[in-house]
Amino acid sequence: MKFFRKNRGAAQSRFPMLITLLTLIFLYTPLVMVVIASFNASKYGGSWVGFSLIWYDKLFHHDVIWNALLNTMIIAFFSTFFSTVLGTLAALYLYRTKSKFKSIYSTLIYTPLIVPDILMGISLLMLFVLIISVCGGWVSSLFGINMHLGFTTIIIAHITFCLSYVTMVVLARLQEFDHSLIEAAQDLGASNLYIFFKVTLPIIMPGIIAGALFAFTLSIDDFVITFFVKGAGDTTLPIYIQSAMRRGTPAVINALSVIFLVLTFVFVFGTQKLLSRKKS
Description:
Mean pLDDT: 80
CATH topology: MetI-like fold
CATH superfamily: MetI-like
Shape: globular
Strand content: under 5%
CATH architecture: Orthogonal Bundle
Low-confidence stretches: none
Radius of gyration: 24 Å
Helix content: over 70%
Largest sheet: none
CATH class: Mainly Alpha
């Protein structure tokens, strides 16, 4: 009996490991296929023709892609900055408030997390069109600025859904916050501003950085919402990739994906090192 129980226990311990291994293989196999296809001389990657760096050469001479990447980075930078600031303030408020409406505030902030992207994109588009139609005339007459769909509407839309993720991550960090540190600083005569910058902010900084990484990644990767709120000629990298794949030119996109993959691993590795140093 002990022999069968021992073998049964070993089989049960191997089963989760096997499922995890199969899941990892399923997740990373497409990435490996993209890496291999980026070095394939074939344009469509259907069969291996031979090793070549032609697609990387075409990529670095493809001005349209780099312009789309620049647009994406500009949008991601501004949306990450504002969503991080607003999300951190929202998390601090939800953590400290004793208001009876706290649950309502939390629901309103977390709702974009569960709203489908296509619904949010349509809703934001309707809102922007309404604002432009109502306010566009007098803004143009007063300031000489023509209100239209473009970078500004994309950034506002990205802030809208990134803010919720930042708030969630920072609030989770605040739940582990030792409030006695603030009380000790107050007993020593520290002002509220000094306590925030010297006590609260350094402790929650890993959460703020993680939230900013969430926002930056989501902004770069977003296609659906950007597709609805962008203006004519405003091309981000996901929009360009979708159109390139529809035209049947995936080879250069494979090379671009490999570069992004390498940069992502380097970025994540560097961030983990930074956060581990802060914790130590």
